[in-house]
Amino acid sequence: MKRYNLIGWLMLAVILICGGCDRKQPVEVSLKPASVAESLSTKQGMVPLRIGMGAMITPKDGYIYYQRLQKYLEKKLGRPVQLVDRENYDEMNALLENGKVDAAFVCAGPYIEGKKKFGMELLAMPLVKGKPLYYAYIIVHKESPYKSLNDLKGKKFAFTDPKSNSGKLVPTYMLAKMNETPEHFFSKVEYTYGHDKSIRAVAEKLVDGASVDSLIWEYAAAKSPALTAQTKIIAKSEPYGIPPMVVRPSIDPALKEQLKEIMIGIANDPEGKQILEGMMIDRFVAGDDKNYDTIRTINRWIEQQKK
């Protein structure tokens, strides 16, 4: 019964967030009717800059800040900006690879994969509490007796996305160091395709535990404390490179530099700073690929263990 409840809840969440959109095409996330965005593009004679929202470090319920960022970028760039959403990381990477989005906020794991596969380019990194880092939190319900990952053996567990660093790779690495695999260790694994959804699944006792992005959990704790209050953190990973902002390899170099300058300078603008504060981001800095070497290390370690 709980499985059907989880599936039903996830379906409802997707309907509410995506508005029943066709997943085969890029989805514009806008509070304005699509016709308004289209007329703006036609009037200015410019194709919109398409920005993917595959893994913003703010949960989906913070869309209002994405909308403000969209309008801010439109004003600074002098051209229309279209927000494009996807419910899994593979789809967002595919859009970047095929040139259907120009820039995107992606998870650290998909960035590494995209860079290796088709030359995805790092544009900028957000700083949270002064650092371009984040963690994986292993969470359980506040009333549960579990005190460590080891206590979840034989229990139901939620991952976010097969390509998520904090939501899949890191807990898999933790288990590998215990000579375990998710398939063998847990009685069942669910994919929620959203860190905020994983938090809710734990809070509502639909699963026994989950691995979530620390940034999302902390944001939810500040904005929706009643939800995270139903959970507790029983394990925290080592720090990893924060989900970055990237661009497709074929983007116009001048546009790339203009976008980079805007993102790095946004914290120095009163309007931009207000947007960042709402998203719980200090500021953006130039991207540094070395920041993601720790994730590459655990990727290689896991692959070696499979041989």
Structure in a nutshell:
The chain has 307 residues and is of the alpha/beta class. The protein has helices spanning 2-18, 34-44, 63-77, 89-97, 108-118, 165-176, 182-185, 195-203, 214-223, 225-228, 253-265, 270-279, 293-306; strands at residues 27-28, 49-52, 81-85, 103-105, 121-127, 133-134, 136-141, 156-159, 188-191, 209-213, 231-236, 240-241, 245-247, 283-286.
Number of helices: 13
Largest sheet: 7 strands, mixed
Strand order of the largest sheet: 1-3-2-4-13-5-14
The CATH topology annotation of the largest domain reads as D-Maltodextrin-Binding Protein, domain 2
Radius of gyration: 19 Å
pLDDT < 50 runs, ≥5 residues:
1-43
Count of discrete structural domains: 2
User: What is the CATH C level class of the largest domain, in words?
Assistant: Alpha Beta
What is the CATH architecture descriptor of the largest domain?
Answer: 3-Layer(aba) Sandwich
Overall mean pLDDT stands at: 85
> Strand content of the residues, in percent?
15-25%
Beta strand count:
14
Label the structural class: alpha/beta
CATH superfamily of the largest domain: Periplasmic binding protein-like II
Q: What is the molecular shape? A: globular
Topology:
Elements: H1 2-18, E1 27-28, H2 34-44, E2 49-52, H3 63-77, E3 81-85, H4 89-97, E4 103-105, H5 108-118, E5 121-127, E6 133-134, E7 136-141, E8 156-159, H6 165-176, H7 182-185, E9 188-191, H8 195-203, E10 209-213, H9 214-223, H10 225-228, E11 231-236, E12 240-241, E13 245-247, H11 253-265, H12 270-279, E14 283-286, H13 293-306
Parallel strand pairs: 2-3, 2-4, 8-9, 8-10
Antiparallel strand pairs: 1-3, 4-13, 5-13, 5-14, 6-12, 7-10, 7-11
